[in-house]
Structure formats: C-alpha cells, structure tokens
C-alpha cells in the first residue's frame, strides 16, 4: 500500500446491519482533517482481505452473516497475519465474536472463529439490548464510553485478552448470567473489540483517535471544540441515570 493510511473495511455486506460502517467514515474523516492521506478499501464477500492494511474495521451483524464472514476470515488468514504484524484491528459486536476462538449461534451450533482474540461466545438470556455506559482501562486515557448494544451472545475473555472497560450501565460482554460479568469489550495489543454500536466512534471520538494514533504511529492534534466533550458528558450522565434503558420485561 502507499504512504496513505490504509483503512480496510472487512465484509460490511455480511456484517454491517447496525450502522457500524459509520466507524470507517469517522476514522477517515478525523484522519483527513489532520492532513493525513487515507485510502479506504471495502472488502466484498468475494474479495480477499489484504495483508498490508494499517487499520481494519469489522462491524456487527446477524448470525448468518457473521458465520459467512468468520469462514472467509479463517480461510484467508490475512487478517491474522496483519494483526500479528502489528496492524490495528477494531471490531464491533459480531466482529468481536468472529475474531474470538469460537461462537455459538441461535440454535446452538458452535462456529470456529478467527482466533485473533482469546475469547469465546455463548448464547445468553435475555438478549442484551439498550444503552451502555462503561469506564475504559485508565491507562488508555479515554473518557467513559457510551453506545447501544443488541446481542444474543455473551463473550468470556481468556487470559490472553483484557477487558476494554468496566460497565456502569448496560450489559457489555454479557457472559456469567443475566447482568453479565461487568466487563465490556476486549483489548489485546492493537486489537480492540467492543459491543457498542452508535456508531461507537461517532459517539466516542476519543476512541477513534486512539485507534488512529496506533495505526499512524504518532500523536494527533486535538480536533473537537470543547462543547463536544460537554455533550458527551451530558449523554453519559443521562445513560447512567437509567432513563434510556428499556422497561423491564
Ligand atoms: N449476532 C450476534 C449476537 O446476536 C451479534 C449481534 C450484533 O452484532 N449486534 O450476539
């Protein structure tokens, strides 16, 4: 690839039903506004994922789409290769599940994942639907994350992966019972996964900038006016208040 930042959008037609394609738009926009040249490559279902990308983005999706995507990612091996070589990989919900060791789909079948992340996913009850507020690992220097979740799988992290955040409202990773185990998302090197939609990078631009910092290898100048942080804090307080949660069944 050229000197431009290479963003690779992995199988959005298989995993893109939750608007997560917006994450690619946010990343490209925030890079370009800083004068960074960007190429965006969209990988169709019959395409091969390139090995030389800088930043791979995998969205959420329904079970059948994620089974098809997982098979392709496993067979091609290029995403594993890129992650091993230090590329930044960002995955949302089904994307997170697909990058794990395996995942259970509706009906009970267990599908092998790409084994890029040390986590397994099993069905959970009830389905996790609603707003989430979560406090990221302090060393990442991020403000609280907000987003919405909608998933029937719950993911259990192994020793090779670290939770991205601790849940303050909502379910998050969702293993270990109806309320989950209090963790949200996953981090392993430069591979970062979350259950948050929104698109999550539109709702949490600081997370977008963290990914861009990893992928470009250098710090980035601030972009947003102070009111952006104020609006985010207002929304976080509203989510924490529980007013956005669906009524109990
Ligand atoms: N199909 C997966 C589940 O229900 C992922 C859903 C999603 O990506 N929102 O757990």
Write the layout of secondary structure elements.
Blueprint: E1 5-10, H1 21-32, E2 38-43, E3 55-58, H2 63-76, H3 78-84, E4 88-92, H4 94-99, E5 102-104, E6 110-112, E7 119-136, E8 145-157, E9 165-169, E10 183-184, E11 186-188, E12 191-194, H5 200-203, H6 205-216, H7 226-240
Parallel strand pairs: 1-2, 1-3, 3-4, 4-12, 5-7
Antiparallel strand pairs: 5-6, 7-8, 7-9, 9-10, 11-12
Helix pairs in contact: 1-6
The structure holds glutamine (GLN).
Outline the structure in words.
The chain has helices spanning 21-32, 63-76, 78-84, 94-99, 200-203, 205-216, 226-240, and strands spanning 5-10, 38-43, 55-58, 88-92, 102-104, 110-112, 119-136, 145-157, 165-169, 183-184, 186-188, 191-194. It has 249 residues and is an alpha/beta fold. It has one domain (5-240): 3-Layer(aba) Sandwich (Rossmann fold), CATH 3.40.50. Strand 5 and strand 6 form a beta hairpin. Bound molecules: glutamine. Glutamine is lined by residues 18, 60-63, 66, 93-94, 150-153.
